[in-house]
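Handout, section B. The chain below has 450 residues.
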Amino acid sequence: MALTGIQIFKMLPKTNCGECGIPTCLAFAMKVAAAQTEIGECPYVSDEVKEQIEEASAPPIRTVKIGGGEHIFATGGETCLFRHEKRFEHETGIAVLVDTAMTDEAVSGRLARFNSLRYERVGVLLKADLVTVKDAQGDVGSFMALVKRVLTQCADAKLILISDHVDTLTAAVQECGVRKPLIYGATLDNAAAFAKIGQASGCAVGVKGSSVDDAVSISEKLLAAGLKDLVIDTGARTVRAVFEDNVLARRAAVKAKFKPLGFPTITFPCEISDDFLLETMVASVLIAKYAGIVVLSDLQGETLFPLLLERLNIFTDPRRPMVVQEDIYPVNGPDDNSPVLLTCNFSLTYFIVSGEIEGSKIPSWLLIKDTEGLSVLTAWAAGKFGADMIAKFMKKSGILTKVKHRDLIIPGYLASLKGELEEELPEWRITIGPREAGHLPAFLKRWQAS
């Protein structure tokens, strides 16, 4: 059970030194209890207390990290069944499968698509996360060659290594170095050997169960051996079975605090259907219902992009607006005669507006005012996009040094502020722009012509 702030406070040195960046130990304890900071930020807490608090404060589903350096994929860390209860912490990982039985052309295509299928949406880079390398032939030479190829060709890929041969996995783990892979394939028969590799390398271990009960037995055996980072496969290979197993595992971990299932799951849509579209549908179900990782047989733009958007929507914190930084953004290489436009810092608004300006081919300055992530009309209604605030922002933004003219284009929804803005900014001529961003290209062309 998680500790309260008062319980944590009683374990602290109570020096109120402030070295953690928080003025008092009580305030620090409250933030630790609320998961807003880590107990390790206190420089004077003992290792024993640190371990005790970390264990008590750990989420019911453990956070497991794969990779190393700048390229780490984290899964797990979940604390709830439904997003509206709190939020989902870590996105479902999307992996592509390559194995030693594939042709060179097939492997090259999958790795090339892993590197190229990347999309930017509302300032977020959307892409696949992992490459699963499978020893399909039981040949250590071909498996090692494939692992080296993935490491070389996919610089930011996190690896999942699958083999029934412990010696093969040991060699592959050494080859990966700091890019610590997930080593998958632990069963009741080889659990001791997998535990040994996991402890020696610090890599997470993938449980390969034949059922939920079998996966629980393997997990218990690995936990008893001292492993902490596991990823669980219950062995289900039908849509209904894997869906039910994922729900069961999440409920057991979150509601019953059942530790053997308190880990993220790995699922294999690639083994559920030979139909690629049906495989994608299965993946979409599992992304929505608790899978920590989904392994796909291939990556194609027309199927990957919808999965990435689904994932983005599900794992975006509904309580926190997506924002861009308040600043001046040049679009299309503006100069001192280019138009100046103003809008809010809600990221979707920014990317739509900047995209339309970019499409117009007209060099422009785009001023982004901090409205705490609210859209234009909502921010105005909430008193966060008033004339006095806009005027203050304009004066401190530095736009005066970038343009010779004094023409400001405001969103059509702020038309009622025109008079107030002219009073606040008497040297500026205020022009009311269109209400819809899609009308900006034509509007800017008319503005330029005038």
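Note. The chain has a mean pLDDT of 92. Compare this with the example in section A.
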